[in-house]
Write a structure and sequence with these properties.
By secondary structure, the protein is α+β, with helices and mostly antiparallel strands. The protein is built from 2 helices and 4 strands. Helix 1 packs parallel to helix 2 (79-96).
Length: 159
């Protein structure tokens, strides 16, 4: 036993690193190109939707707080959703600069607590999120639709 730490001196062996090997230019026999791999399973797709929803909701609340420009969400949000978010952010800034003492604390330290997603049909999901802020907890609902290149939020409702 070591007098300074109170821990025994028997060392735990470190895991051995795998040996490096030289690989020729050809792929191994079990390797399949990306186009031959199976499509995402429903579980993987639901996880992807939850991750996209979490990041989008966090960014949208930061837009309302004035700490993020709304244009950063232009690739993820439908143009109508983006315009509505910009309008609400402008209203929030105007209220926060007014005489109300609590208005300045709106949207402080937001963090997404949980996200749930539900598949509505092929290429369409609806998700809900719980966001905790400094002075309150709010709910957010979104609808995501698969576009030609990526998932897009077509409806965003922030409570």
């Amino acid at each position: 036993m070591n007098a300074a730490t109170g821990i025994g001196t028997s060392a735990i062996p470190a895991p051995s690193a795998p040996a490096l090997r030289v690989v020729s230019g050809t792929a191994p026999a079990g390797h399949r190109p990306a186009e031959d791999r199976p499509a995402l399973r429903a579980v993987d797709e639901a996880r992807e939707i939850c991750a996209i929803s979490r990041a989008t909701v966090q960014a949208a609340i930061e837009v309302l707080a004035g700490t993020r420009p709304a244009q950063q969400l232009s690739r993820r949000l439908d143009p109508r959703c983006l315009a509505a978010l910009q309008h609400r952010a402008a209203l929030t800034r105007r209220v926060a600069s007014g005489a109300s003492p609590t208005a300045g604390r709106l949207h402080r330290n937001p963090s997404v607590r949980s996200v749930r997603a539900c598949r509505v049909s092929d290429g369409v999901y609806e998700a809900s999120a719980v966001v905790a802020e400094e002075s309150r907890v709010r709910a957010v609902a979104l609808r995501l639709e698969r576009g030609s290149a990526a998932w897009r939020v077509t409806v965003l409702e922030i409570g």
